[in-house]
Amino acid sequence: xxxxSSDSNxxxxxxxxxxxxxxERRRFPDISSRAYEHPADRSALVALRKLSGFDTVFxxxxxxxxxxxxxxxxxxxxxxxxxxxxxxxxAMLLDACxxxxxxxxxxxxxxxxxxxxxxxIGLDEPIIVVTTGLVELLDEEEMRAVVGHEVGHALxxxxxxxxxxxxxxxxxxxxxxxxxxxxxxxxIVTALREWFRKSELSADRAGLLVGQDLRASxxxxxxxxxxxxxxxxxxxxxxxxxxxxxxxxxxxDSVLKILNVLPRTHPFTTVRAAELKKWAESRDYQRIMxxxxxxxxxDKDASVSDSFRESANHYAETxxxxxxxxxxxxxxxxxxASDLGGRLRDAFGGGxxxxxxxGPGAPGKDPEDPPGEPRP
Length: 376
Known about the structure:
The structure is a single chain. This protein is α+β, with helices and mostly antiparallel strands. It is 55% helix and 6% strand. It has 16 helices and eight strands. Strands 5-6-8-7 form a four-stranded mixed sheet, sandwiched between helices. A two-stranded antiparallel sheet has the order 1-4. A hairpin with a 5-residue loop joins strand 7 and strand 8. Helix 1 crosses helix 8, helix 6 crosses helix 9 and helix 8 packs across helix 12.
């Protein structure tokens, strides 16, 4: 058995000495989270990691943030996953940490909540929380992708920023009566949410690296969107919804899409499915599966400028390839399109106006007016 694979017959062990579950899957020793991070997510994280004293400042906030309270809450009012409780989830957690080579297995809790959800939070050490609604909704392979998703958050260091986002969101609600103070906090919250939506796409990729079953990842996203009715759903039709969502409507719909997504921490489910499928079919994914990926040992040498360049290239490519009406308008403006007013009118659904009249009877003209002379 290769050092880069795991199966139910392997002697390889992760914390706790448990045998690894499931079929044969690749393992990624010393993999850096840069290997699977979305370009926008990666550029932000590389820049933050390079800031001198950034981690120290954020850890200094631990006295203000409710991390201790959250840990005590889950410890006292949830079920901690272990080799004695939720054993199948414990095995998945060990397996995910083994495949992504996460040195320390984070604590994991199951909390009573019918809403399917999972999160990775914490400043000093990440903890993973999944709801009973999610555990009851997903089958084993679908759940494996979710556990891998959360372990991906832990490996990327997303837990710190997610905790801050939770704190600031609650703080904004408490000071909503202070207009300027609330606006300032909400501006930070909005920026963090935009980053976190990209981080969710990164974690989806980590989930695929752990589960290595695209169909299971797709099924899980479909169930989150439509419940436990897979016999009523179809992957191709589900992905077609993402295509319709992106390309449909006019500029008014583009604006509504932006307004709809602003309060969310997660991208829309169909969009996540389409993004994950696109990445699974990419050369980047295949290179990782073949064992060619950035190592953690190289993280200190990661270039901030290269990361920002990749992020800029990604957004430029998104604008070029997007079928969204607003992105089409951006392309036209960048390309120096003429008749911008007409384009805006058409894009907002007004349709083309009547063609200007020529010759006698044209608006503002009199048959007796000399050519080129305006009428007073």
